[in-house]
Amino acid sequence: MRDIIRADAERRFANAWTRPVGAWLAACFASAAALVAAFGMIGAVGAWPSAPDIAEFAAAIIPGTLYFGAFMIALTAIPTLIFAWIMHSQGWKKIYTSALFGGLTGAGVLQLFGFPIRHGAEAIPVTMMFFCVGLVGGSVYRLVAGKG
Questions:
Q1: What's the average pLDDT block by block, 10 residues per block, for the chain (148 residues)?
Q2: Which residues, at least 6 apart from 98, have a Cβ–Cβ distance to it below 8 Å?
Q3: Rounded Cα distance, 24 and 31, in Å
Q4: What is the Cα–Cα distance from 75 to 112, expressed in whole angstroms?
Q5: Fewest C-beta in 10 Å: which of 29, 42, 103, 145?
Q6: Long-range contact set of residues 61-64: C-beta below 8 Å, sequence gap at least 24
Q7: How far apart are CA 59 and CA 70, in angstroms?
Q8: CA nearest to 76, candidates 43, 30, 122, 145
Q9: CA–CA distance from 121 to each of 16, 117, 118, 129, 131 (Å)?
């Protein structure tokens, strides 16, 4: 009987903490990969990239993703906890809700710690890029969390 109770407690712990935290970490690294890809596309806009340029970008994908992912983990911990609590308390378990909250987190964190909109119109494309990166993270969060 104790084994059944212990297994049930472990399952509840996994559902309550392990899966959401793992989903958040996966979302942070997916957002970081999307950000690195966006920077790569922005770099390729000016001129057709050469083979060494493509090789350098390919070599920078994993370290860049880990680097930006670490920043995203640090900067999104509190907003993600707040938005996850709101979604859980309201019963919002659709992927588009998580994506929207992820986009708001991306744009909001950029505004708080990066390139505020008060700098003028040039901040709007950067803010939109971080909104889109947040959309990726929010979608990955919901897919990995497996609820909805």
A1: 73 76 94 94 83 88 95 93 88 91 93 80 88 96 81
A2: 87, 138, 139, 141, 142, 148
A3: 10
A4: 10
A5: 42
A6: 61/33, 61/36, 64/32, 64/36, 64/39
A7: 18
A8: 30
A9: 42, 7, 8, 14, 16
For residue 7, the model assigns a pLDDT of 72
Confidence at residue 133, expressed as pLDDT on a 0 to 100 scale: 96
Contact 102, 138 (CB under 8 A): yes
* C-alpha radius of gyration, the chain, whole number: 18
Distance CA 110, CA 36 (A): 16
Helix (H, G, I), strand (E, B) or coil at 95: helix
Burial 63-83 (b: 16+ CB within 10 A, else e): ebbeebbeebbebbeebbeeb
Structure tokens at 141: 């969060």
Q: What's the pLDDT score for residue 62? A: 94
Confidence at residue 19, expressed as pLDDT on a 0 to 100 scale: 84
